[in-house]
Amino acid sequence: xxxxxxxxxxxxxxxxxxxxxxxxxxxxxxxxxxxxxxxxxxxxxxxxxxxxxxxxxxxxxxxxxxxxxxxxxxxxxxxxxxxxxxxxxxxxxxxxxxxxxxxxxxxxxxxxxxxxxxxxxxxxxxxxxxxxxxxxxxxxxxxxxxxxxxxxxxxxxxxxxxxxxxxxxxxxxxxxxxxxxxxxxxxxxxxxxxxxxxx
Length: 199
Prior knowledge:
By secondary structure, this protein is α/β, with parallel strands linked by helices. The chain is built from ten helices and five strands. It has a single domain, classed as P-loop containing nucleotide triphosphate hydrolases (Rossmann fold). Helix content is 52%, strand content 11%. The mean pLDDT is 91.
């Protein structure tokens, strides 16, 4: 099974994915951004736009996620924003067309909540404001309302634990790990955030 966690930037995809991985036995996080950044490093600077526009990223993600899903002992969790209908159909539809059991979840929140979350990120605190993420909030929120992007999970008033538990219940995944105590969770959350700063 492949659990695709979609959502606007700031919706909580990465933290949800890593907490779901911790609480589900043999779960594996596969981050498509890694392939995108690898392609960027191979291309001249003037060719480094949105890596989702690179055809070999889209085809490579389908191939790699299919391989990961077949090899994994548990669910493969994919935290990735994807809001173009044609790209969604090419990637998620392509995986389903190859027989991969993709469970798609779109984390939603109001633009105000998303902006607040983005401004509280460690990268912003240390002086790097993610203007790409902030400038794409309205586009992402509007696109993800569509039926194509179900199952929708409103997150404005939910903790990461509650989001994880809702996804696990919907996907039929037993949670073997317990909730963390708040102080320990904040340390883990900080560690996950540091690992995912993109400068």
